[in-house]
Write a structure and sequence with these properties.
Blueprint lengths: L1 H15 L6 E3 L4 E3 L2 H14 L2 E4 L2 E2 L2 E8 L5 E7 L6 H19 L7 H7 L6 H11 L4 E2 L11 H12 L5 H5 L2 E2 L2 H13 L1
Parallel strand pairs: 7-8
Antiparallel strand pairs: 1-2, 3-5, 4-5, 5-6
Helix pairs in contact: 1-2
């Protein structure tokens, strides 16, 4: 039965091809799939093969599980959540881990932006990247924390990720890319002070 599951996943992978990354993180000048775009692209292909995607959190582990509805077998990928007290950081981590576990489970192609940054193999210095981003964005967009549906915006996730990675150390770093009002600036300061 497991062989059937793996054959179905292989078929899904062959149909996925190369997915276009749909979001830009200006602090790392890298593109990525947001979780919604990734799920939107993958779920119909899984359903076509009678596969079900689940993304539960069990014992502090965010999982992506693909279940073969026909045979009942499953395969999964998981990451242990970091110990965080801030609900916003926990929510951000869950969102990122959902994406990473699904990408890993299906072995989707992705640039190793984080790995290149961590290993010092960037082609350009961070300062040069920031200057290029500033020049590429002549009119700054307002940084909002929530969208109309009361969900965190992709821009806010970029900021949270930058704070977590240490590339954002002040409100001034954020203002290089976004217009920031006093309330949002206060939220950023609170996050930076709680690190």
């Amino acid at each position: 039965m497991e062989q059937s599951l793996f054959k179905k996943i292989a078929k899904v992978r062959s149909e996925i091809g190369v997915l276009v990354k749909n979001e830009i993180n200006p602090f790392f000048k890298s593109k990525y799939f947001d979780i919604n775009g990734l799920v939107e692209a993958v779920v119909p292909l899984l359903q076509k093969e009678n596969l079900l995607l689940l993304q539960p959190i069990t014992d502090g582990i965010v999982k992506s599980v693909i279940v073969d509805i026909d045979g009942g077998t499953q395969v999964e990928s998981g990451l242990l959540l970091p110990k965080l007290d801030d609900p916003q950081k926990i929510g951000s981590a869950i969102t990122y881990y959902r994406r990473y576990t699904l990408q890993s489970l299906l072995a989707l192609q992705a640039e190793d932006d984080d790995g290149n940054t961590a290993s010092g193999h960037n082609n350009k210095s961070a300062q040069k990247q920031q200057i290029e981003m500033k020049q590429a964005a002549p009119q700054q967009k307002w940084l909002n924390i929530l969208d109309n549906d009361k969900n965190y915006t992709k821009e806010w996730y970029n900021v949270l990720n930058g704070i977590e990675k240490g590339t954002i150390t002040s409100v001034a770093d954020v203002r290089k890319y976004y217009a920031v009002n006093k309330e949002v600036a206060a939220q950023i300061e609170n996050l930076l002070n709680s690190k």
